[in-house]
Amino acid sequence: MLFASGGFKVKLYDIEQQQITNALENIRKEMELLEQSGTLKGSLGVGEQLSLISGCFDLQEAVEGAMHIQECVPENLELKKKTFTQLDRIIDDKVIISSSSSCLLPSKLFAGLTHVKQCIVAHPVNPPYHIPLVELVPHPETDPSTMDRTHALMKKIGQSPVRILKEVDGFALNRLQYAVISEAWRLVEEGVVDPGDLDLVMSDGLGLRYAFIGPFETMHLNAEGMLNYCDRYSDGMRRVLKTFGPIPEFSGATVQKVHQAMCEKVPADPKHLAARRKWRDRCLMRLSKMKREMPSK
């Protein structure tokens, strides 16, 4: 949907024909809803965008003439490596192979490929239509032009690409996310706060601020600039950080406590979870629209 919104012709490939059939139907429904709500991306109408997307049941046919391949198979290293090996045999020297992996290292994903210079991780954030961030992570042998071309493509389709300058486990987004999850878990485990109130700390506290500015700009604005912030608060930050505990096991009594609290809010059955995801996506859609309308300065 994002690539089509930028006017690009898109071929969807899967080993199961029904997956493609379902995807095309879901895309049609979703685009119509987006158009009705005034949040369809790009300058083309629904009909024009849908005409750019087709299904394909042969891998070689799918990548023929392509300038960019976005791999989206499950987060399984062996499955992804198998897919890249198949692609490596049939692509030319111009197309970019991009993985949607959320934390698998490019050095492992693309090891031994002939076209490794054309390979990169372009990790989107779920749901990518409403959350524009894309982490670009190169293999040590990735050609700089591959990073530049992917960056330009993501900008063209309305995403917000960031360059991860060298590979690190979890990239940037998940390292930050896991740090928050880890401390959130410890605070509940140690009886400091209940799970529901912990979520409020983020949704009605930090999350509101972070929807528009990041931690560094927050520091910069919460004092007379970054230097002043560090002069004022660095001692307190170091003192608190020294009290952080070990990495949680994410099991035992705490997982039961957190699970029960979450189920009281959203029962863990397919119907309720799906409804809550739709609510989440609508919220993100409205926030995304507001952010686009807000001046950046």
UniProtKB/TrEMBL annotation:
Positions bearing the site annotation: Important for catalytic activity? 123
The residues covered by the 3-hydroxyacyl-CoA dehydrogenase NAD binding domain are 2-167
Q: What is its EC number?
A: 1.1.1.45
Q: Which residues form the 3-hydroxyacyl-CoA dehydrogenase C-terminal domain?
A: 170-258
Instruction: Give the CC-aspect GO terms.
Output: cytoplasm
Leader sequence range is none
Q: List this protein's GO terms for biological process.
A: fatty acid metabolic process
Instruction: List the PROSITE patterns hit by this protein, alphabetically.
Output: 3HCDH (PS00067)
Q: Where does this chain mainly localize? A: cytoplasm
Alphabetical UniProt keywords: Cytoplasm, NAD, Oxidoreductase, Phosphoprotein
Stored SUPFAM superfamilies: 6-phosphogluconate dehydrogenase C-terminal domain-like (SSF48179), NAD(P)-binding Rossmann-fold domains (SSF51735)
The listed locations are:
Cytoplasm
| An example Gene Ontology molecular-function term | NAD+ binding
The UniProt entry's sequence similarity note says: Belongs to the 3-hydroxyacyl-CoA dehydrogenase family.
Subunit details: Homodimer.
Record protein name field: L-gulonate 3-dehydrogenase
Gene, per the UniProt record: CRYL1
